[in-house]
Queue: 4 jobs
Job 1
Amino acid sequence: MDESRERELLRAQNTELATLAGGLAHEIRNPLSTIGMNLELLAEDLGEDDSPRARRMLRRIGSLRGECRNLEEILNAFLQFARAGELHLEEGQLNEVVAEYVEFLEPQAAAADVELRTHLDSDLPPVLLDQALMRLALANLCRNALEAMPEGGAIELLTRVKAGSVLLEVIDTGRGMDEKTRSRMFQAFFSTRSGGSGLGLPTVRRIVEAHRGQILCESELGRGTRFSISLPIGGG
């Protein structure tokens, strides 16, 4: 099978998956919204009642509303995962994607006592990018990095050319991962975080591979993590 035919087949498969995911999300989101709305009405009805029974019911309603929000987040993560292979490619600068996202992330990083450092190669050649999806991949990597540094630290973002590819590295000084976690981190629905969807890193990999790129990870407990994304110059 030639390369153009292979790309067309992959695009069709990704489109079918995204369509199925969208239909499934619609079927789940509607009843979920109804449940959430009725829980809110129940909470309002009990709001004037200060009895022990009413307070117990309000706590339970609060827990259920929290679970509804968690389900909504998982649903959104699943949609992102399913649609990660649908690309709208244009020639662009990876540096611009990184710089714009870093500017957006700065207030959140400052609040978490995390320093953002960038080293962007000014001679970086353009690559074929779906800028929205690549920003999503970068956001997922940086979110993981922030969560790995609850007491503060640093995230370093670097771009450069290496072996005919454009390289993006995201390096953090967080708690790192052991070998068992590294071996499973790209598996869908695997998470070490309570309440995590387990779809962040699998989504990143789908996005990178849809760009005909590669993602690698180096990590050591207590010393931090480095993710390296390589993209072919000119789209491969």
Job 2
Amino acid sequence: LAAVSDVFVENYVPGKLAEMGLGYEDIKKIAPHVVYCSITGYGQTGPMVQRGGYDSIAAAVSGLMHITGHEDGEPVRPGVAMTDLATGLYTYGAIMAGLLQRYKTGKGLHIDCNLLSSQVACLTHVAANYLNCKIEAKRWGTAHGSIVPYQAFKTKDGYIVVGAGNDQHFVTVCKILNLPEVSKDSRYTTNTLRVQNRKELINTLSTRFSEKTTNEWLQLFEGSGVPYGPINNMQQVFSDPQV
């Protein structure tokens, strides 16, 4: 079967298939062209390689749970298996690159994909902040650590997420909320100042958002140029014409 296949994918604990005579070196002798991909919890080397890998465990070890949840609450597991999904996407890209290499060289290779490495790679700017500046990460709920306002706001009957990605967006948000004086307040004229005075500003905006329904706010934000959207339940997701 290996001799007539392009890709070999396995997710056994490292070393287990080699014991059965089906490790990469074994398959390579039969089919040197095969792109052999191993998907594990922790990779092929290191002190944790013999541990089984599950999404939630990798999400915990990788720090994803540490940065997920309410600011003053406990760590939270994401609503779907994001670590599994990310690993699958990285695996897909690696296999496609492996097939391209095989096309150019005629040689296969062994790809090592694992849950922990994939999720650590997905930490993006959070990891960069720590590695470059030693800034420890924290949980922000729906908010953003360095952009304000960029979060969910409770309405009369649900929630709306609004992201003021620049100063002009913020002025527009204040205009829609009929709070023009807030955009002129010296505490909020730049994003840096808004981050510094986050609590006071969010309290003011939250009070105004609570005065109308989600649909009323959606109509007011339509065409404004400000990124926004409701927090939908499943019924709303699958009845949305855009979906």
Job 3
Amino acid sequence: MQEVGVGLYPSVSLLNHSCDPNCVIVFEGKQLLLHAVRHIQAEEELTVSYIDVMATSQERQKQLEKQYFFTCDCHRCETRHKDTEMLAGEEESWKELKASVPKVEELQSAKDWEQMVAVCQATLDKDRALPDNNLYVLKMLDLGMDGCIHLARWEDALQYGARTLRPFQLYYSGPHPVRGVQLMKVGKLQYHQGMLSQALDTLKQVSVLSGGEC
């Protein structure tokens, strides 16, 4: 999701944080809406994540301590749930990839799309034997798709984006809006490439996530 401004919402600001929240915040214009992302039991506390949940336990803890000055003790942090999937593959390989992600993000901020895509492609083309659900492979794929979209390299963008869908489903479970946005991007790329049946299937998933019917 992209940050576009700052707003003050006193009631929702009372919600506590969890790295495995049962709600997410979405906006319709200036109106803030709270959406459930899973079944909520009676009298269960409503929670949201103050940060992006697609990060390892260690990275989330560092960010929460730096920005919000507390240590999270939610179940996901205590059990390090999904860390194994995020750090899958040889550690030496993904550590090298991890070091490359901030450099690519700097190129993204500078809107140097050509160099950004070149670095993504060179990094991902190396034979690392890392799965797409590895956190740093996934981030590089997502950055590569974004760069290719800005360069109107639709086929390359689709190749990167299609590889992100299964990992996004793993890390943004339930009707999470971040997963919905990713599906929408890939669906539009499929449509642009004339892959009409695949685009329809992908966009149907967006409708289901948003509570629609297919």
Job 4
Amino acid sequence: MEHDNKLDNSKRNVFTDVDSVARAYKGDEEKPLGCKTFTKQKSLHRNTQCDLCGKSFANSSNLTKHKRIHSGEKPFSCEVCGKSFIMNSHLARHERIHTEEKPYHCEICGKSFIRNSILITHIRIHTGEKPCFCEVCGKYFFSDSNLTRHKKLHTGKRPFYCEVCGKSYCNNSELRRHKNVHTGEKRFYCEICGKSFFDHFNLVVHIRSHTGERAYRCEICGKSFITNSHLKRHKRTHTAGKSFDYRDT
């Protein structure tokens, strides 16, 4: 009986090599505890590893989605504009642009957004949180995209050129905004007063003059401002003791 107990306990050892398991239990009909699980995990790892880049995934479904990055396959197409996507979730997110659905709401100001990630970045305007840090100059930013755009100032690279005047910019959005100066096109209209603007940002700032929204708050004195640039200018009155004349609209 004592010998049998020792044998039973030995079968509970954890084996890290498939061949070791086979040698230890060759000819024994009873399989060791954990042997089946080990073989399954080994097979799972082998079947969910990308043979192109070696990256591993939790399941075959995620591996299939990942492989589309290498193949360029985009099986999910938008019926409105024809744009294609790797995953169905990306298509669903894109379709909100056409439907104007904005399911993510800011509990502070009530503003709505297409994606949760945009809402998270927006909330930082209210909280003042700037988690993205520039290692070159130490400046902080609300989002990774703002940090990436800022870093181009250090490199000096301005790869986006205006074909009309030759002026260059750090990113394509600034170039598009600049081109409106040449065309005179003001595509962004205020629904309240009808005033038009070259870009969406200036329209948003203008609308705040109607709503009275002042999203940028000074943590020193509590005064609020319509734009971040006005807040920065105001902060100098605390640090340098100088006053600046400017309009908040």
